[in-house]
Design goal:
50% helix; mainly alpha; single chain; two-stranded antiparallel sheet
């Protein structure tokens, strides 16, 4: 998960499962920013991605290009996840 998306989610009101995922993540420095490596089932990643929708500048909020890019990157990573069949 890109650092800008993680920072946004840390400030948001999250459920206990989502909060636990963020708290257990490991920050990895990447260039000027960081990536938060989190282990969670695809459903939790999709919930977190849904909460990042406002980073696109929807709902009358101004869009910050770096935040939009972070959400798009996270969306592409979540889209590549294959659900594990029991």
């Amino acid at each position: 998960m890109p650092g800008k998306a993680a920072d946004f989610l840390r400030a948001a009101e999250l459920g206990p499962a989502e909060r636990a995922v963020l708290d257990q993540g490991v920050a990895v420095r990447r260039g000027q920013g960081y990536t938060l490596r989190v282990s969670a089932v695809p459903a939790v990643h999709r919930q977190l991605l849904a909460r990042c929708q406002s980073l696109d500048g929807s709902q009358g909020l101004p869009a910050v290009p770096a935040q939009r890019k972070a959400r798009r990157e996270y969306e592409s990573r979540v889209g590549a996840l294959v659900p594990i069949k029991p």
